[in-house]
Write a structure and sequence with these properties.
A: 484 residues, alpha/beta, 19% strand, globular, B: 490 residues, 7-stranded mixed beta sheet, 18 helices, 18 strands, 18% strand
Amino acid sequence: MTGDAIVIGAGVNGLVAAAYLARAGRRVTVLEGRHAAGGACASTTMGGNAKAPGLAHAVYALDPALVRELGLVRHGLAFAARDLPLVGLRPDGKHLVISRDLRATEHNLALQSRADAKIWRSYREGLFGFARAMRAQWWNDRRTTAEDALARISRQGTGPFLDSWFESEGLKATLAFDASAASPLAAGSALLLAWRVAQEMGGLQGATAILRGGSGALIDALLAAIRVAGVSLRLGGKATEILVERGRVCGVRLASGETLSAPLVLSSLDRRATLVELARGECLGLEEWSRLANEKPRVASAKIHFLLGGMPKFSGIAVPTVSRFVLAERWQTYAASHAAARLNAMVPEVTCEFLLPTVADNSLAPEGLHIMSVLVRPLPLSPLQGWPQLKADLAARVITMAERVMPGVARLVRDVRVSTPDQMGESDCRDATVRRLLASWNTRISTPIAGLYLCGASAEPASAVSGRAARIAAQAALRDGELR
Amino acid sequence: MRYDAAIIGAGANGLAAAALLARSGATTIVIERHDAPAPRLAGRVIHPGYRASPYADEIAPISPSLFRTLGLAQRGAIMRKAPHSLAIWPECRHLLPFDLASDGLDLLVEWAAFAGRARERALEVAAPARPKLASLLHAVAASPWPGVEKLAEALGDTIGAAIGDPREAAHVAALVLTGRTADPWCDGSTAHLLAPAAGFGGVALGGRFSIVDALVSAARGAGAELVLGVEASELRRARRGFGIALSDSRDIEARCVISTLDLKRSFLALFPWHALPKPVLRHAAQFRVAGATARVLFALERAPERAAPETLRGPVHIAPALDDFARAHAAFREGNLAPRLPLTLRVPSASDPSLAPPGGAVITATFGAVPFRLFDGAWTRERRDALRAQAQAALEMVWPGAGSAICAAEVVVPGDMEDWLGATHGDLDGGEIAPDQMLDLRGWGGSPRTPVPGFYLGGGSAAAGPFGTGAAGEAAAKAVIADLARVRFP
């Protein structure tokens, strides 16, 4: 069978790439190894008919250009909540509610520290301003105008950076979660904070949103878009080899032995899986090959869903329930966890973010039932004891932490589902955070094999549900097709 | 009394600065709170007849230009390169002479060259009078720094990319991290490769005192006044320079002041805090110090008998793998001591016989990743004894039977170093070594000048501080000479 292009993986990025290629008139086949599309966004069901969000429970980095160009709103994409406040839950009940409302936030921060409340406005304006200037680089691949600030912040760790602004441990720990993909002591990890607020959701800078119908709704809208464009989607079609001839990609072999030929292949897997495993190291220099082959993943995250038989009650001051909640003691906790995770040891103390998506969207679960969706980060990718052993323990540790700020929540738990890092199949590899954040789009998406592009989340500056890498890779692939 | 320049601290930096300034014709005074100059270089008596430095056995390299200008060789200081030969224990019990480990040596030579270029650049930056801060920052961040982006990588990855053999990689890490701490898997730890004395320091041929004597004679010979046993207790900004209150109740005036104290102490201890602009206080508060060195000094009645000659010449590192440094650092961060602390054994009396009586020996153990403050209490006698026991066990392992010859032992923890030396938290590097600290927080824009006109940083916390003995003093003196030449000052 032949076509114009093959896309490997039917997650958000794979579907976006396919949609762009098909809209330009290419015959596109999407291969998905599993029996459902969705990847990190696929929803799961719990307790009969409650819909739990997939690995990505909130979206904050979705590329506005592709939402517009693919007409996703027309295909049914809608927000259940467009701008979630960030809530740092504290055992003393003085929770930190950080929202777009500066006055309310200042008032709330003053509960922990007056100095923090006073400086909050300049911190936020400074960071948002710097992040906007960085969009030139992160969105459009142009040089930023904020070069001096960039040089400084790209050497700073999140911890020292936050220390230079704030005094309250709670506030720093809450803000640091967004940069917890890297150790807060790692040089340049502070840049992750800026990357996060450089994004835009629903026209609001730095907003975090939840989609109506769960994050699976994004997949449904994309599936509708590719159906209109005429893409063929093959579920259960696992790619086992990328075929290369004289330095040019020429097709893909499937697990069934079938061969599909096409002059363009876009892979949503990471660089190592694509080039070393699927393309068998073709066209890679020895140095590059050994770098990729020996690349050890650093740290990972886990996803836990609790099905609750009722709405949990928060201790302490009132907090908005449609929020994302962070449970973390101090920023040093992340540093200790990263250090342990890099040595394949279980983290001494758990840090997590959680959402109650059923409060914002009552279509997700039957009356009275709620889903608590927890993202635990950082964790070791493959701890020495093995994940099967640690799985139940991890859920217990999270619920014990939650119990301190939501007394009685443990009794509400009806069902638990844990996706550990080894099941999620994706993790950040050992690539210095700064180097990845500041690489040009071309180096992120292109490969030494002509016609083969990377379009997955690992081609983004930082892993997130975004689709920007897929849009840019598809556009590059189309230009490449025209040149030939 | 009114001086052109007052220098606080008569260490290598202070003496070098004093000699250079006095040579240029400026009236110069050096104020030292200890009774003897350069306590860090000189060492102290640990047992009748035995001397050792509580801080370090080797001396960070002195730049050749400083050596020549001050005529240190004529004054009796002859430096010899510290031996590189080293061994690693305990997993691989055999010796790995470092001279043969060419990959690792290449890496270190390359980075030592980077550090040398950075030092040269720091001196260049010091010379012109007050260029704009932004252009300074740019100048410093550009070429001399071996690709700023390299600094942002993890030390383990940098070493791993150059060296395939894990034992040799552990050697290099041990050499770089002796008496320090870093997580080799954390981005940014490569900055440690820039730090001083990464095996490229030296030992003074005529004993440690020869170098101190040479520096003192260079400073005095040029006409600088040296006041010992007196502390500068307060600095006041006066109309034309500074008023300095001394602990012997004298009051002197100086047109400009070079502080060789660390950045935190320079601003937070010398000045009354309300006298400083807010951004300066903020900078001083942001600056991070991380003392991590503990030493055990042993006096031995007789030198180890059954000893391989290499182990007497070079340092012996007891640090089997990179992961051990990562574990030790994680414990350090939490105010804990790791069960297996990396440590280095040296026999300073083998290269400097003046340290011990004939037949005797001085052996030192240098620990890294020892916290200044323990999370669960003070540095009690029991805890010090535990460190000593660990050092003694290592000593017995390397030189069987040597333990019975020990006649005295002294344990020095970071808190002692703070008390004796005045280094905040006992940080011998003058500040934590990390990319942002090296490029942005040490001093202002790579220059020894500070936002307080007439006040200069010439110590370990200054931009040139980590690049060798006397380098920061040299840079500060150059800046002062350039600025004094201008008519209206400050």
